[in-house]
């Protein structure tokens, strides 16, 4: 049942989606020793969030040419289509690309080419969310927003921010989000993952996003949960990621169901799937097995994702129709 269910994903990081075998092939291609970060038997080898971010940067450093990014994007979207997903949004960071001398336009063209190939093969629809990295600092995040707005691309429809939430308050990044909003991009930000409710509240007040990456720790503040439900802010929830990164000890203590039952619009996502031994299909399986959601309720998560996707009205209508959903959601 889970396998056949139609799915959609709004929250996945491109370099974080690289499977261990692909990373090892890239390491071999460039003559780099990757054994400290990944092996075929155990997968990725980090032990906490700081080490995860370091492993992420190392993996990104192994994607050095446009062809590398085409391959990475194509393999992610084809794999997603293989899980019966109709739609995926991928986070792409100009900062990571710049570190290996890859320009913004080269990065976007390469990821877009991967999406195009996957669409021809499978029909999957994909979009790119240009993403600033919080711990690189506000200037770099603003630069990412400027690049996205100054170089419009039909598949770049959103702007977001990932990275270490323990650094800098959302207010510091206001200008970047103002630029992206004025440029017509949809907005999302990682908040309420390693930061508490105040981080989510500031993100709403100052960055004025329509979606929150994770957001789960808002459960610590019932008034905030009420506000998010009333305002229709959408959460990109990633249960396996939250447990793997120790935001929660186990799925039993994860607030997915409590948030959803409080009226918050929730979607299911894989974040950095091989790092967390997960996939979008596995997130739907977790929702069924660990949270007791029925088939119709699981489809509701897909409906939520399509309604919150950063796409034009016609594309949304087609996606909703493909799922048999009423066009109003
Ligand atoms: N970058 C990639 N995955 C991330 C996560 N879960 N939180 C913050 N930044 C990230
Ligand atoms: Zn994320």
Query: Biggest β-sheet: count, sense, barrel?
Result: 8 strands, parallel
Strand arrangement across the biggest beta sheet: 1-4-5-6-7-8-9-10
Structural class comes to alpha/beta
| CATH T-level fold name | TIM Barrel
Write the CATH architecture name. Alpha-Beta Barrel
Order of helices and strands: EHEEHHEHHEHEHEHEHEHHEHHH
Please give the radius of gyration in angstroms. Answer: 18 Å
Shape: globular
Number of strand segments? 10
N-to-C terminal Cα separation, in Å? 22 Å
Low-pLDDT runs: none
Q: Give the CATH class.
A: Alpha Beta
Mean pLDDT: 97
Beta-strand share of residues? 5-15%
| Distinct helical segment count | 14
Which ligands, by name, code or SMILES, are bound? Answer: adenine, zinc ion
Task: Report helical residue fraction.
Answer: 40-55%
Task: Please provide a written account of the structure.
By secondary structure, the protein is α/β, with parallel strands linked by helices. It has a single domain (7-322), classed as Metal-dependent hydrolases (TIM Barrel, Alpha-Beta Barrel), CATH 3.20.20. It is built from 14 helices and ten strands. The strands form two sheets. An eight-stranded parallel sheet has the order 1-4-5-6-7-8-9-10. Strands 2-3 form a two-stranded antiparallel sheet. A hairpin with a 3-residue loop joins strand 2 and strand 3. Helix 6 packs parallel to helix 7. The longest helix has 19 residues, at 104-122. The mean pLDDT is 97. Residues 13, 16, 56, 162-163, 190, 193, 241, 271-272 line the site of adenine.
Strand and helix map with partners:
Blueprint: E1 7-9, H1 20-29, E2 38-39, E3 43-44, H2 49-60, H3 66-82, E4 85-92, H4 94-99, H5 104-122, E5 125-133, H6 138-150, E6 156-162, H7 174-182, E7 186-191, H8 197-207, E8 211-214, H9 222-231, E9 234-237, H10 239-244, H11 256-261, E10 265-268, H12 280-289, H13 295-308, H14 313-322
Parallel strand pairs: 1-4, 4-5, 5-6, 6-7, 7-8, 8-9, 9-10
Antiparallel strand pairs: 2-3
Helix pairs in contact: 3-5, 6-7
The protein binds adenine and zinc ion.
